[in-house]
Amino acid sequence: MSAETWQQVVFWFFALLITGAGVLVVTTRNVIHAALWLVGALMGAAAMYVLLFAEFVAWVQVLVYVGAIVVLMLFGLMLTRAPIGSAEFDNNQRPLAALCATAVFVVTSVILVGGFEGKEINFARTTGTTTESVGTAIFTSYVWPFEVVSILLLAALVGAVVIARRD
Amino acid sequence: MPVSFFLVLSALLFSIGIYGVLARQHAVLVLLSIELMLNAVNINLVAFSAMLEEAGLGGQVFALFVIAVAAAEVGVGLAIVILIYRNRQSVDLDELDLMKW
Predict the structure, then answer these.
(1) Is 0.95 topped by the overall pTM?
(2) How far is A1 from chain B (nearest CA, A)?
(3) Longest distance between any two alpha carbons in chain B, whole Å
(4) Fewer CB under 10 Å: which end of chain A, C or N?
């Protein structure tokens, strides 16, 4: 099989993984399982980044999302003493929510497919983007957004401590 | 491979996140659905970055910024959830109608 065929196979495998895991995140009855299915969706997204020549973003995804955010979510679930298993976690607007989500999907995908018709991603190139070039881009063209993000993280850190502190 | 494959995938993931935000009652599960939506945006950014390879790495850099903002959002969001739980012994979003007019 050619490289292009393999890329198609990898794309469809991980697209199915992301979609299936995402659907299970929003439908499963067990809150811990929801967080663990989120790991599946996030790892599938990381695989997509590798397929799209973004290795550094993929590893940041694994470290920050799977390593930190999902663990925080699990802590949140444990600390709020969620009734694991039996309970009902959905409210009574599920049909309306499904309708709304379907409408958003149809509208966005029709517009995006129409707007980007014929645009191809060139998978034939042999070199990926290196971490060095990403670092150069961050610290030259995007250094101000980078500083703003660091201030945002500091503010979020202080805010989280102040909000959750027990007086 | 057409870029629209990735765009439709991310639209699908975003819609799944919207469904979760609207249909879930537990506050932490709503935060999980928001993470799905942020990931859909990231897939879009990285796909456009790969499509416009001569235009620099702005898509990948902004995907990294989105990941950082998601981390900040989860930190503050879970702090709020824990505070609400401490005050009301419940994180059921349908019961939190104190500020509803």
Answers:
(1) no
(2) 15
(3) 54
(4) C
Chain-centroid distance of CA A26 in Å reads 14
Q: Which residues make Cβ contacts (< 8 Å) with residue A45, sequence separation at least 6? A: A18, A61, B39, B42, B43
Residues A148-162 pLDDT 10s: 999 999 999 999 999
Domain ranges of chain B: 3-95
Q: pLDDT digits over A65-98, tens only? A: 888 899 988 888 888 766 655 456 677 788 888 9
ipTM of the complex: 0.88
Cross-chain Cβ contact B94/A91 below 8 Å: yes
Q: State how far the Cα of B82 lies from the Cα of A7, in Å rounded to an integer.
A: 43
The architecture (CATH level 2) of B3-95 comes to Orthogonal Bundle (1.10)
Q: Radius of gyration of chain A from Cα atoms?
A: 20
